[in-house]
Amino acid sequence: MTNPAIGDARLAQDDHGWKLEVFDGYKWIHAGYTEALANAKLIALEKERDELRHADSERTYTQLLNLRGIFHKDDACEKCGGLGNYTYGSTSTWRGGIGGRAMTSGPCDKCWGSGDKHRAWMSHRKVDAMVKERDAAVTSLHKLAEEVLVMRAAVLEVAAEMALLSGANFHAAPDAVQGWADALREAVGA
Ligand SMILES: [Zn+2]
Fold this sequence. Notes:
Blueprint: E1 9-14, E2 17-23, E3 28-30, H1 33-67, E4 85-88, E5 104-107, H2 124-165, H3 174-187
Antiparallel strand pairs: 1-2, 2-3, 4-5
Helix pairs in contact: 2-3
The protein binds zinc ion.
Zinc ion is lined by residues 77, 79-80, 84, 108, 110-111, 115.
């Protein structure tokens, strides 16, 4: 038999007949009619209070979903319940792989924060890959710009030498022309 709870009532028999008893948390005490009635009302009120609390938390949850633009519970993300964040078992959260063992909250990797199972936001994994791709592109662009500057300097150098020789007898300087051609080829890495 389970232990009685405070307010539980029972009928007990003694030499004078049947009487109502109520459990006060420690022992069964004799209860008159008024006490029994009060006890029954208390139990009913407690039940009502619990139901209201449940209904209240349901309503709060629905309101929260509505504020997030989710108007039906079935549309909420199944992983995060529509909240958009999720408690992961490791500090690496949605990245997975190696991380600390502490429980860590992070964006839900199913809806990516929207809370809506039909309308996920941009994946953090995708954004991560895009950022890496962009960084690589910027690096090669900088390298290209440096190469162009080197080529420009070489072209200007050759042009300066040509200008110096323009007044002289051109046919007398075939070696110089060959030198310019070599310098230009070297500048473009040919
Ligand atoms: Zn989610």
